Amino acid sequence: MQINAALSAVSGGNALKQAVGIALLSQMKDSQTAQAATLLQDFAAAQHPNLGKNLDIRI
């Protein structure tokens, strides 16, 4: 989906195009939010379970 096309439809004078553009922008926002949440969950799952809990110092 092209965000520029959706934005131009929202700013246009046609009410139907505005409604469709707003719906598309909402869907894109929801999709990007879901993708970001999945990315963060995957990142958290990939971390080592003991990361930050132990400190090894040798002199």
UniProtKB/TrEMBL annotation:
<dbReference type="InterPro" id="IPR025906">
    <property type="entry name" value="YjfB_motility"/>
</dbReference>
<dbReference type="Pfam" id="PF14070">
    <property type="entry name" value="YjfB_motility"/>
</dbReference>
<protein>
    <submittedName>
        <fullName>YjfB family protein</fullName>
    </submittedName>
</protein>
